[in-house]
Amino acid sequence: MLVFFFFFFCIVGGAAVLGVGVWTLVEKSDYLSLLASSTFAVSAYILILAGGLVVVTGFLGCCAVIREQRSCLSTYFFFLLLIFLIELVAGVLAYVYYQRLSDELKEHLNQTMTENYAQPGKETITSAVDRLQQDFKCCGSNNSQDWTLSVYIRSERSGGRVVPDSCCKTITADCGRRDHPSNIYKVEGGCITKLEQFLADHLLVIGAVGIGVACLQICGMVFTCCLHRRIKMDPY
User: Where are its TM segments located (predicted)?
Assistant: First the structure.
């Protein structure tokens, strides 16, 4: 009974990892287009892969115990080791990206916003910037003055706007023509600070879940070795 409880716990843990990976990609996934590298998304995809493998191998472990076959247990052990290595890679990627997240945003976010906003073929970035400014109630990369360098704001297409309409506290037609604090968001640190905190929180969750499930895999490998020694040799 204890054996099946362990495998059930593994399956639940795998489902949790899978859920965290999907949550990381789905929640405010528009922001990924604003990042210079794909490390954040890759870490989430690795979590999804690891979570799916944990669930599948959990059922494999149950079958191995029921059939009392050492060959099945050996296969289960191999998959546990593979999952552990995958999660180790995800954890390293998350840690490395966490360390350089601030520098990447400071170096690239302002350039991405000012050069690509409302430009032909850049609809994804435009949508991401609008959502970023509305969700986090901010305006500009560092502050609203960043938009003075925007290709869009300097063009005739801006219609006299000094900031995009998504900077406004209440969005109305052409509201971006006034940059008074009563009309637009004036947040210290701008959108960089808000986005950096958001991504850092997600990376910490990825790291914590990865470490937790990696420890579970280690326990699983030890447990499998013990079962392997107890089950008689497979006659096949």
Answer: 43-66, 78-98, 203-227
3-state SS string over the chain? CHHHHHHHHHHHHHHHHHHHHHHHHHCCHHHHHHCCCCHHHHHHHHHHHHHHHHHHHHHHHHHHHHHCCHHHHHHHHHHHHHHHHHHHHHHHHHHHHHHHHHHHHHHHHHHHHHHHCCCCCCHHHHHHHHHHHHHCCCCCCCCHHHHHHCHHHHCHHHCCCCCCHHHECCCCCCHHHCCCCCCECCCCCHHHHHHHHHHHHHHHHHHHHHHHHHHHHHHHHHHHHHHHHHCCCCCC
- What amino acid occupies position 124? T
Confidence check: pLDDT of 235 > 70: no
Architecture per CATH, domain 89-235, reads as Orthogonal Bundle (1.10)
pLDDT tens sequence across 182-232: 999 988 788 999 888 888 888 887 777 777 777 877 887 887 787 777 765
Q: Please name which of 137, 142, 145, 144 lies closest in space to residue 171, comparing C-alpha atoms.
A: 137
